[in-house]
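Query structure, 145 C-alpha cells:
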C-alpha cells in the first residue's frame, strides 16, 4: 500500500512515528513521555504505562507532553509543550503476560531458564490540558480560594 500524500517533517518531529503525523480527524490527542517511553493518549481512553508507584484510584498528572493535536491544529514542544499537562486516574496496577528468558552456552552444558512479568499501571485519561485551558483552570482555582 503506497500513500501518494506528502508529509513534511521538521527536525523537531523526527523522533515521532510517521503514523502519528498522518493521523486525521477531529479527535484531540496528546503524546506524553513517562517511564522513558512515549504514549499517544486521548480523553476517555486508557493507556498502560510503566509502574508509577501509586495505588488504585490515585490521580496522576503527566507534565512531559511532547505534542498536542486538536483536529487540524497541532503543537509540538521543544522538547516539551510548555504549560500543558495530561490528567488521569489509575484504574489498576497489574503484571503483564509472562515471557521466558532462556540462556544457553553451546558445548558447555550451561542452560538457564527464567520467567519475567513486567509490572504496569493502567491509567484512564481524564483531561488533556493545553496552555490556554491550564491557565484558565489556574485562574478558576485562585478565584475559589
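Result returned for the query:
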Amino acid at each position: 500500500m503506497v500513500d501518494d500524500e506528502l508529509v513534511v517533517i521538521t527536525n523537531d518531529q523526527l523522533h515521532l512515528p510517521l503514523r502519528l503525523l498522518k493521523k486525521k480527524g477531529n479527535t484531540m490527542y496528546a503524546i506524553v513521555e513517562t517511564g522513558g517511553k512515549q504514549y499517544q493518549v486521548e480523553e476517555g481512553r486508557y493507556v498502560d504505562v510503566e509502574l508509577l508507584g501509586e495505588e488504585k484510584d490515585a490521580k496522576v498528572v503527566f507534565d512531559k507532553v511532547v505534542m498536542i493535536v486538536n483536529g487540524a491544529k497541532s503543537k509540538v514542544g521543544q522538547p516539551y509543550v510548555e504549560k500543558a499537562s495530561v490528567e488521569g486516574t489509575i484504574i489498576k496496577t497489574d503484571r503483564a503476560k509472562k515471557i521466558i528468558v532462556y540462556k544457553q552456552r553451546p558445548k558447555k552444558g550451561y542452560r538457564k531458564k527464567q520467567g519475567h512479568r513486567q509490572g504496569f499501571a493502567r491509567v484512564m485519561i481524564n483531561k488533556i490540558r493545553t496552555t490556554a485551558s491550564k491557565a484558565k483552570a489556574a485562574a478558576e482555582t485562585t478565584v475559589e480560594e
